[in-house]
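Sorry to interrupt, but I need a hand with the structure work. Can you supply me with one protein entry, sequence and fold together? No commentary is needed, just the two lines. Leave the record below and I will have a look.
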Amino acid sequence: MRKTTFLLLVLFALPALAHSNKDSRCTTSDIAGVYGFKGEGFIVAEGVGFPVGPLTTVGTITFNKDGTWRVKQDVSASGTLHRNVVFAGTYALNPDCTFSLFEPTVSNSAIDIGIFIADGKEFVLMPNLEGYAITFAGKRIFKARH
């Protein structure tokens, strides 16, 4: 009886494990779409594009299936409003849903690092540059069309 129960468990568990491993991989098709986001934190060093002090931002980021991204945001830096701030570049997405954003006019290395959560419907990220102490959180508004 124990062998039969064990074999049945293995028989039914293996396909479920294989399926869960497949689902745990992130692809550009999984995450492609438009996300609304907010960012909060501080600029802690001079010369990074905004004055030292508190920073908040809201906007949208689009992740395309071809590995490109585009941000349009409004930023409040030390109380001064900067409207329609736009950045664009490429991203690298790992199977574990971690990702890096690249923007060659800002840096030769990743400018932000993050992770997609909630089956790709949300993300959190932070700058990968000195002088920023900011966190960003976003939720998908629209999934990319096929």
Q: What stands out?
A: The longest helix spans residues 2-23.
